[in-house]
C-alpha cells in the first residue's frame, strides 16, 4: 500500500502542526507546515490582523498542492498542516493529489482563542479566529476524510488518524 498524502486541516489554534508532525512521524512520512509556504505579502496581511482573500490564497494553495503532488509522485506520502477552510481550496489540493485524505481538527471558539492568545512567535493573531470560523466549510460526504475534535491529546489524535488511514 502506497503511503498516504494527508492534509491536517482546520482553523488556527486547532493544533494542526502538532498533530500533523506526530502523524507524519507515526506514518514515517515527510511533514510540512503550509504556513511556511505563504508568500511574504500574506504573512504581512495576517500579522496586521487582515484576513486573506481567495485571491491571496491562490498562489499559496498552489504551493501546497505542489508539495502534496511531489510526495505522491515520490511515493513517500506526506502530511501537511494546512487550514484548507473551503471546499474550493480542498478541490485545488485534490486536483494536485487526487487521493489526499483530510483530517479536520475542530475545537470550540473559546478554546481556540485561549490557545492562540497563549501562542508565541506566530504571525496569526487570535483576532482572525472569527473570520476563519465564518470561512470554514466542513468536509462533506464526497470528501475523503475524518473530523476529530481536539478534546483529546495530540498523540491520541495522531494515533486515531493513523488508525483511520489503516496504517496505525
Automatic annotation (TrEMBL):
Its EC number is 2.7.1.12. Pathway: Carbohydrate acid metabolism. It catalyses: D-gluconate + ATP = 6-phospho-D-gluconate + ADP + H(+). Keywords: ATP-binding, Kinase, Nucleotide-binding, Transferase. The keyword Nucleotide-binding applies. CDD domains: GntK. The keyword Protein biosynthesis does not apply. NCBIfam families: therm_gnt_kin (TIGR01313). Belongs to the gluconokinase GntK/GntV family. This is Gluconokinase. It comes from Nocardia aobensis. The lineage of its organism: Bacteria, Bacillati, Actinomycetota, Actinomycetes, Mycobacteriales.
Amino acid at each position: 500500500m502506497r503511503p498516504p498524502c494527508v492534509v491536517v486541516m482546520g482553523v488556527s489554534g486547532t493544533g494542526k502542526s502538532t498533530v500533523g508532525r506526530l502523524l507524519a512521524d507515526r506514518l514515517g512520512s515527510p511533514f510540512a507546515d503550509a504556513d511556511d509556504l505563504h508568500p511574504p505579502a500574506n504573512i504581512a496581511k495576517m500579522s496586521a490582523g487582515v484576513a486573506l482573500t481567495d485571491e491571496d490564497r491562490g498562489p499559496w494553495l498552489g504551493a501546497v498542492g505542489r508539495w502534496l503532488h511531489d510526495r505522491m509522485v515520490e511515493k513517500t506520502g506526506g502530511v501537511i498542516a494546512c487550514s484548507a477552510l473551503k471546499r474550493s481550496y480542498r478541490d485545488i489540493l485534490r486536483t494536485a493529489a487526487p487521493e489526499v485524505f483530510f483530517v479536520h481538527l475542530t475545537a470550540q471558539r473559546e478554546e481556540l482563542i485561549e490557545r492562540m492568545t497563549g501562542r508565541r512567535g506566530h504571525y496569526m493573531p487570535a483576532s482572525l479566529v472569527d473570520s476563519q470560523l465564518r470561512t470554514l466549510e466542513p468536509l462533506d460526504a464526497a470528501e475523503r476524510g475524518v473530523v476529530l475534535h481536539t478534546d483529546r491529546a495530540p498523540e491520541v489524535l495522531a494515533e486515531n488518524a493513523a488508525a483511520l488511514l489503516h496504517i496505525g
